[in-house]
């Protein structure tokens, strides 16, 4: 048995009878490697000749509209969608074995029954997303997704202040709202002790 539930789909082709669906959540702060880990799992599924589809919310246009891109520059083609229903319409469980969703925290609660439905119909659904927002509060549908998941992996970045494992995303710009999308100019990874809830006063 390998880490992260990869044993569940090992060796099973998309057409396999009795294919077992499941939900895997990769969470953590910004820069913790969620996108890298999602792309690693998707690549391994592709190497196993499974049919995979990768989605991202339309709201996230930080680097590239039709790609998922990590902070290191690692990337893969992705389909931008406005809602979970679009994922359901595009990822047909009889054809697709693995569905990946990056930045899943940006979807509303309707993503939860979508993920559940795909998993119930045999799809391995891997979701990567921020578990906390810039205030350190639960982000959108993440609590529910973590609750229904078979596997939850919490990754950590390196705290930019003290070097400890970082679980929070410190917003550096004076902007309100959960949905503010930005890279290293707007956010940095911090541990519990170094984190200041909300925006750092300038
Ligand atoms: P996430 O999707 O969780 O935001 P990514 O997978 O896009 O993270 O990027 C992870 C990469 O970010 C790391 O491999 C590393 O190169 C880079 N990085 C930049 N700042 C940090 C930090 N403070 N801690 C850890 N990794 C960092
Ligand atoms: Mg990411
Ligand atoms: Zn710290």
Summarize the topology.
Blueprint: E1 22-28, H1 34-47, E2 52-57, E3 67-69, E4 75-77, E5 79-81, H2 84-90, E6 98-101, H3 111-120, E7 124-130, H4 142-148, E8 151-155, E9 157-158, E10 165-166, E11 168-171, E12 187-190
Parallel strand pairs: 1-7, 1-8, 2-5, 2-6, 6-7
Antiparallel strand pairs: 3-4, 9-10, 11-12
Task: Describe the overall structure.
The chain has helices at residues 34-47, 84-90, 111-120, 142-148; strands spanning 22-28, 52-57, 67-69, 75-77, 79-81, 98-101, 124-130, 151-155, 157-158, 165-166, 168-171, 187-190. It has 202 residues and is an alpha/beta fold. A 6-stranded parallel β-sheet has the order 5-2-6-7-1-8, with helices on both faces. Strand 9 (157-158) and strand 10 form a beta hairpin. Helix 2 (84-90) runs parallel beside helix 3. The longest helix has 14 residues, at 34-47.
Helix content: 10-25%
Low-confidence stretches: 7-17
Shape: globular
Percent of sequence in beta strands:
15-25%
CATH top level is Alpha Beta
Count of helix runs? 4
**Class based on secondary structure composition and strand pairing:** alpha/beta
Order of helices and strands: EHEEEEHEHEHEEEEE
Keywords, separated by commas or semicolons:
binds magnesium ion, single chain, two-stranded antiparallel sheet, 202 residues, binds adenosine-5'-diphosphate, alpha/beta, 4 helices
